[in-house]
From TrEMBL:
Matching SUPFAM superfamilies: S-adenosyl-L-methionine-dependent methyltransferases
Keyword Transferase listed: yes
Catalytic activity entry: L-lysyl-[protein] + 3 S-adenosyl-L-methionine = N(6),N(6),N(6)-trimethyl-L-lysyl-[protein] + 3 S-adenosyl-L-homocysteine + 3 H(+)
Domain of life: Eukaryota
Subcellular localization(s) per the UniProt record: Cytoplasm
Natural source organism: Anhinga rufa (African darter)
Coiled-coil residues: none
Single GO MF descriptor: nucleic acid binding
Protein name: EFMT1 methyltransferase
Record's keyword terms, sorted: Cytoplasm, Methyltransferase, Transferase
Database matches in Pfam families: N6-adenineMlase
Alphabetical list of PANTHER family matching this protein: EEF1A LYSINE METHYLTRANSFERASE 1 (PTHR13200:SF0)
Length: 214
């Protein structure tokens, strides 16, 4: 009698197979979307989250809300800096033709696809910035420090204070409220920011001016 070798081959359950097929299909659709003519390089998710860099993109609604707030706060012809907040930058770029300028300060070099508006930024060296990035040259700075730590907020705060003419919109954990007030003079808003994937930590927005987020 011949051994039935098939018995030794591990079989995937139908549930696992279905999940795998769904995953590959989603991947194909995403790649197809990227290569199709109508692909918008600024849409949220065009550059995927890298959790090792502590990246968590905002939901579409939150990114839109923060981008609109920044435009109003910056005023006509205003300059906006997005520090470690790429999904807000992407939403601002979708508003092509609006009367403002924006740049993105980001550690992840994948965002260099955005050309001259991309500035490599490492919060560990908060003032290691290009010479053409003049102090107090932005009408509003939106910042989302990558880590929920006092050290990260303290260093990012140095960058924010260097760049802003005055207005600050900070997005970070609710547990950083006291530190944020001490370092940047910002107060918590009623608006609750959401992410495209749920975070374990409660997340909030903080401002130091009369904003539309209340």
């Amino acid at each position: 009698k011949m051994d039935d070798d098939d018995d030794d081959i591990p079989q995937l359950s139908s549930h696992t197979l279905a999940a795998l097929q769904e995953f590959y299909l989603e991947q194909q659709q995403r790649e197809g979307m990227k290569t199709s003519q109508g692909f918008n390089q600024y849409s949220i998710g065009s550059i995927e989250e890298d959790w090792q860099l502590s990246q968590f993109w905002y939901s579409d609604e939150t990114a839109s809300c923060l981008a609109n707030e920044a435009v109003v706060a910056a005023g006509k012809g205003g300059r906006i800096a997005c520090v470690s907040a790429p999904s807000v930058y992407q939403k601002l770029k979708e508003q092509d033709g609006k009367d403002f300028s924006v740049c993105i300060l980001e550690y992840d070099r994948r965002f260099s696809v955005y050309g001259e508006e991309f500035i490599f930024y490492d919060y560990n060296h908060p003032l290691n910035l290009p010479e053409n990035l003049l102090p107090h040259s932005f009408d509003i700075v939106i910042a989302d420090p990558p880590y929920l730590s006092e050290e990260c907020l303290k260093k990012t705060a140095e960058t924010i204070k260097y760049l802003t003419k005055g207005k600050i919109l900070l997005c970070t954990g609710a547990i950083m409220e006291e530190q944020a007030a001490k370092l940047l003079g910002v107060k918590i808003c009623k608006f609750i920011p959401k992410h495209s994937r749920n975070l374990a930590n409660e997340f909030r927005c903080y401002v130091n001016y009369a904003s539309g987020l209340d």
